[in-house]
Structures are given as structure tokens and as C-alpha cells.
Amino acid sequence: MLYVDENGHIDAERISLKIFKNIERGKMDAINGIVVHQTNAATASSTFNSYQTKGANGAHFLIDKDGTIYQTASLLRVTWHVGKTQSRCYVSKKCEPVELKMVSDLEKSWKNSTRVHRIEKSKVFPHRYPNNIDSIGIEIVGESKIEGGDEEPVYEPVNEKQNESLKWLIKELTETLSVSINEIYRHPEIGRKNATEASTARW
């Protein structure tokens, strides 16, 4: 179990505090899930620089290439790390018939992703995926590159040290925050993201 102080900061030997107020939004009232990302930046310092700009998006943690874990936002504050979510009932094939037809029609065009996201935002958990207001974000340093004739960039593999740190961090967070292991996701599993993001992350 982790010790979390009144500011939502963790006091643990394996975690370095490097809080960026710019990425913190409103108060987080509940934590229902964890979302694993990759930064699309080659270094931690590049990500930290981006976190210092006004209105920056970011996550609660960042795992560097050497396995160092940084806490970058309070566990009591929302960060914008998920973006537009997919329909949980559509992905899991558990929609009621009326909603299934509506979402199926919307899914035919990428332009309707905002409309699907609005429908999901109106739902309460667990009828939707965890999103910005109720999930912890973990970034792993790793950029994407165009490979061969691929049109979409491919994220570099998460290395062994990063995966070891990720495994430890998720174990501690799920125990400390009472988050179900079934509510841990790679970003593309719930959002509209490059399918290779965090695809090699292991926990």
C-alpha cells in the first residue's frame, strides 16, 4: 500500500515527485480506472517541458526509459489524458438494441467520434469506460516513428525497466485506490488513438 498525503502526493522511495500544476484540472471525486499511455516524445524532459505550457494536457505519472517513476499530478485532481472515448457497450457487444443501432450508425464515420463521446460522457461508471474525471493516467516515455511503407507511425517498444516499474506501480495503485484490475486499459482500447500506443506495455 502506498502512503498518499492530504495533497494527493505519494511518499514512496520508488516515486519521485515532480508535480506540474498546469496539467491539473478540477477535483477528482472517484477513481475507477487506470489508463496507460506512451508520450510520443523521446525523453522525459521533453514531456516535462510540454507540461509547463499553459493549458497543457498530461497524466498523473510518467515512467522514464531507465524505469524511474515520476508523479506529475495529484491523485486528487483530474488531468486531461483520455480524450474522446469509445462506446463501452458497443466494444463489449452489450448495448441495448436501440443504442446498438444508434452507435453502429455513428461508428460508420470517424467524424462522429465526438457524438459517441458525448453519449458516453452522459453515462455513469461502469456503463462507460473510465475517463478524465475518474481515472489515473500513466505515461511511458516512448515515441512513434513511420516504419517502412506504413502510413501510421508505430510506437517504440516499452523496455524491460519500464515494464517492471509499470507492473509495480499498477499493483500499488490498484491496492491503494481499490481499483479493479479489470479497469486497467491501454489508451487505444478505450480512446481514439494509434493502436500501437502502449501495445507492448505489460503489467
From TrEMBL:
Its EC number is 3.5.1.28. SMART domains: Ami_2 (SM00644). Keywords: Cell wall biogenesis/degradation, Hydrolase. The keyword Ion transport does not apply. It catalyses: Hydrolyzes the link between N-acetylmuramoyl residues and L-amino acid residues in certain cell-wall glycopeptides. Pfam families: Amidase_2. It comes from the Bacteria. This is N-acetylmuramoyl-L-alanine amidase. It comes from Erwinia sorbitola.
